[in-house]
Amino acid sequence: MNFDDLANRYLDGQASAEEVRQLEEFLLAQSSSRRLFADLANLDSALAEQAAGWEPQSLTLPVKPMRTTTARTWLAAAAALTVLLTGTWWWQSATQVHATVARGIGINAFPQGMEIHGKHYSIQAGTVEFITALGAHVVIEAPASFQFESAQRLHMKHGRVAADVPPSAKGFTVITPTGKAVDLGTKFGVDVPQQGQAEIHVFQGEVIAQSAKGGKRQSLRDGQAYSLQSGAGASREIRSAAFIQPDETQSLQAALSSGQRSQSDAAIAALRKDEALIALLDFEDENLPPGTFRMTQGRWPGTRAPEFVNVGDHMKLNAGAEHAWPQLTLAAWVRLDRLESPYQSLYHTDGWDEDKRGQVHWIIKDDATMRLALKRNTLPPDSGEKDGFPDSLTPVLPKNGRWVHVAVTYDADARRIRFYLNGLFDKESLQATAHPALLGPAQIGNWNSKDRKLSGRVDELILLGRTMTDAEIRALFDAGNPYH
Amino acid sequence: MSPAEAEQHQRFLRTLTAHEPAVRAYVRRLVPSRADADDIMQEVAIVLWDKFGEFKEGAEFRPWAFSIARFKVLSWLRDKGRDRLVLSEEVVDLIAEETAQDDTRLERQRRALESCTQKLEPDQRHLLMQAYQPAASIQSIATTSGRTVAGFYQWLHRIRRLLQDCVQRELAKEEPS
């Protein structure tokens, strides 16, 4: 093979080991070969540069002339340097359309159809879905700081992004401060916290993860997650609930534009006036309960919800200690991942002591059904319960993490427990012995005696000292439902 | 950002923008693929900014940037060279050394290329630009253009040769006769 062919094949990544060796011989032998080789590589680089500024359809509008303010806008954004600098020809990219807005949810700055250039954006609230020039669906949830460097390269300084990448956009890459994820055509998410390492979660297909500083390329497949640490990464548990998925955005937006938000607010306001209310946590005021957790966006744009991620994460709540409660309703909106551990705590009073008759443990089990256990309550001999406790029937976790509403009512006098999922009655379980519910010091998302960590977000948690009717629970769900 | 920092930052951006294609082309001739060059460029840009305070106004930016890029390339080669088909360090060193002096010529070539790609047939140009998109799938581009992958690369080689000939002609026009 002649020198010209060898050089071309090498530059196209097509050369075999043997061909690379032959090319080396040519290059070592003569400076004229090296010069020709540099010419060809130079052409290759210059063509890539042209391609980066190239408008795919000749029908597109002429490229807008660069405004002199661009440099100032860049600077004003005071974006992370990496974001500013790593742009491949970001100068041109400032005028190219890399993506368009499919929908902005609770964020006016991103109207539908808006064209996204190489500008750097920071969003404080809401969720935006983009469609890249090559057809990838990309959902970014606030708070986030990001920039499309091209249709195929998204820089995330922080925030959460979920992408659904069709074959046409194979190779779509998310670049984070601690490494990058290259998608090979599938569904994946990247979580870039304000502090700490970015995490890559693969829901379907394959993604190549690479840490920034000399990390090896790591291939990740369905259901695998990986944290990008400098130099090396580490496997993590998959957290699909951490990401707003492209198949979810449409109904989130529809709910918001049909006025769900004000319904939800009205329902909460009414509950606050309910005389039987023991606790209502919507996490919107500055005084959060103590514990170890992250704050993320709640069901509505700009609202807040705690998220439990690591072993030991929890939130403390001390409410309803003044007396025992013959009637009780527990309800919450949750966005959870299924974990392997047998029990995950929605609400666990501290300890599990013989003398604390009626103390409450509200659990999601590893089969994704709910359990409401009260200390020293018993089942009747003919009970259909298989596990010795009142359990719900229908798994409460959807395949992909989405917001779901879980509720349970307890009536000690009627010795009755009723489970609800998304506003619908699921199952009733009777007790032989039924003590009034004992509340007080408790944890949400974990248990103080043993690890029962939940993985995901909790929003609008309610403890009510009476049993809500089926219709009330239905109304609570309808009012608070973020989907339409 | 203080006004002084902002001004420094702005000066850096202007300088980098002016020299980026040259530095990128320099890195490109030392590593196997454009994607590798892009990765290294990111790191180079960060180091350039970090050390920009040491860089004297009025000094030659390009040789300074080349030396930093060269250092990054060599560490990349040591890091990645084991599991990739890369040229030996000896060859890379030679190319780096000789072509750094050659930059004026290469820059003129890059400039001349612009008018040469304009001369291609529109659908040829379209295909070429597609093939040069970051992370382009040659497989699917080849298929849609009715070629095998091998055939597509053959076509690409031919187009590059055409462009190189055109570039030489363009540059010859500039020479004083």
TrEMBL record, chain A:
Domain (LamG-like jellyroll fold) ranges: 326-471
The keyword Transferase is assigned to this record: no
Cited Pfam families: FecR, Laminin_G_3
UniProt key word Membrane: yes
Keyword terms, alphabetized: Disulfide bond, Membrane, Signal, Transmembrane, Transmembrane helix
Protein name according to UniProt: FecR family protein
Molecular function per GO: sigma factor antagonist activity
Listed transmembrane segments: 74-91
TrEMBL record, chain B:
Gene3D superfamilies: 1.10.1740.10, Winged helix-like DNA-binding domain superfamily/Winged helix DNA-binding domain
UniProt keyword list: Sigma factor, Transcription, Transcription regulation
GO BP terms: DNA-templated transcription initiation
Short name of one Pfam family: Sigma70_r2
Top-level lineage group: Bacteria
Entry keyword annotation includes Iron-sulfur: no
GO molecular function, one term: sigma factor activity
Residue stretches making up the RNA polymerase sigma-70 region domain: 17-82
Protein name as annotated: RNA polymerase sigma-70 factor (ECF subfamily)
Species whose genome carries this gene: Prosthecobacter fusiformis
